[in-house]
Amino acid sequence: MLSLISREELKKGIDAGTLVVVDTMPAAYYKTEHLPGAVNIPGFPYDQAAELTDRYAPGVLPDKAAAIVVYCANVPCRNSELVGSRLLQLGYSNVRKYREGIEDWVGAGLATISG
After folding, report:
1. Which residues are within 8 A (CB) of 51 and not within 5 positions of it... i.e. 6 or more apart?
2. To 5 degrees, how large is the angle CA 47–CA 3–CA 38?
3. What is the three-class DSSP state of 38?
4. What is the mean pLDDT of the segment spanning 32-46?
5. What is the pLDDT of residues 77-109, one digit of tens each?
6. Where are the alpha helices (DSSP H) in the chain?
7. CA angle 87, 27, 42 (to 5 degrees)
8. Which of 34, 90, 28, 29 is nearest to 57 (CA)?
9. Could you give the 3-state DSSP secondary structure of residue 40?
10. Please, are residues 53 and 90 in contact by the beta-carbon 8 Å criterion?
11. Largest CA distance in the chain
């Protein structure tokens, strides 16, 4: 199980530029809306999450020691857990999860990015 990060900690890290944020939603959802600065590693369909992580991680996460935060839609969404766990298996050493996801972020009135 991944360590968790709060919305407040995540916002501070994004603002300071000290975190690499990974949106684990399918690409179409990512293009519609994602957290500022987030890169995309799709974690859905679930049975393809490991394969997709293996394919995309080297390009979007070149530094295996970087402070990484994965997120998806909300608490029930499994994408972030699957992608984050796979990142740990691949040797990424500092991976946490924003369990509440983009729904919580938007619900708090925080900015998102489209495109």
Report:
1. none
2. 65
3. coil
4. 97
5. 999 999 999 999 999 999 999 999 999 999 999
6. 7-16, 27-32, 49-60, 79-89, 101-107
7. 20
8. 90
9. strand
10. yes
11. 35
